């Protein structure tokens, strides 16, 4: 049991100039929670939007005027357990992500955090803390999008848009793990070879041709289309879906609304859905088992100390990035 009463935290109160604060009260776990000492975290695309003050981001995390702590993905070791927790013990290595909800006030760029015990899972032995942290949000998002929202079944066909990004990388691998018969991936030139290596059966270079027009001309159709960056207008892709198929995206947009309307009026056998990442023990365990067995790869681009968060954010924005940007929290202050 940890005897520390305060902790270091990266504070984003000044959105453009986050600072390390070293006297923040350390959280105490409730009866159903565990206290985790964070080893690694990771950056996702939401961080930049929070820093820019994009309004709807308040749906995903509380945005207080003071004491603004960010970071969702984490891996670390259990330091304390609530009295009702029976399935985890002090010293266990775990991973997961904080929930994307307006009431979330913690951040994983912190020495400690608390989570309900069922919202994290044991870290696979063969997987590093950095890779485990990097897998959390992308893995649960892709799994829920393909299996939950998309209803993917073995032997079906999947189209992954934005396959060169963090969620897209993982979605290609998870589609194959779920038994997809064929996975077509769309990405830019720089990512083609890497996406092929992740298991895609066909990779379309969007820098050289319009993938939608090519697929229409070849009359290729899919059971699930996953718009991983949330930028593709849903209504433009419905003609490439098989009857009963689903177009799944990660962000709200006018294209999503228009696509949903078209499924009500013209494409009544097809679905348009938006996925919300959710940290659940059973999903994390499944993702962990795939990583442990080598079936699922989580590409890592680079690792930065938490004290070098500005450089990490700059790297996240660079177009030549090839995988997730990991943050060393335990040794990075």
What does this structure look like?
The chain has 333 residues and is of the alpha/beta class. 26% of the residues lie in helices and 27% in strands. Strands 3, 4, 5, 6, 7, 14 and 15 form a seven-stranded mixed β-sheet that branches. A six-stranded parallel β-sheet has the order 10-9-8-11-12-13. The chain has a two-stranded antiparallel sheet with strand order 1-2. β9, α4 (192-197) and β10 (202-205) form a beta-alpha-beta unit.
Number of helices: 8
Following the backbone from N to C, one meets helices and strands in this order, namely EEEHEEEEHEHEHEHEEHEHEHE
Mean pLDDT: 91
In total, how many beta strands?
A: 15
Proportion in helices: 25-40%
Q: Report the principal-axis shape.
A: globular
Keywords:
seven-stranded mixed β-sheet; about 25% helix
Quick summary:
The protein is 26% helix and 27% strand. It is of the alpha/beta class and 333 residues long. Strand 14, helix 8 and strand 15 (324-328) form a beta-alpha-beta unit.
What topology emerges from the helices and strands here?
Layout: E1 6-11, E2 19-25, E3 33-43, H1 46-51, E4 73-81, E5 93-97, E6 112-116, E7 120-122, H2 129-149, E8 157-161, H3 166-177, E9 182-187, H4 192-197, E10 202-205, H5 211-217, E11 222-227, E12 241-249, H6 254-265, E13 271-274, H7 281-293, E14 300-305, H8 309-317, E15 324-328
Parallel strand pairs: 8-9, 8-11, 9-10, 11-12, 12-13, 14-15
Antiparallel strand pairs: 1-2, 3-4, 3-6, 3-15, 4-5, 5-7
Helix pairs in contact: 2-3, 2-7
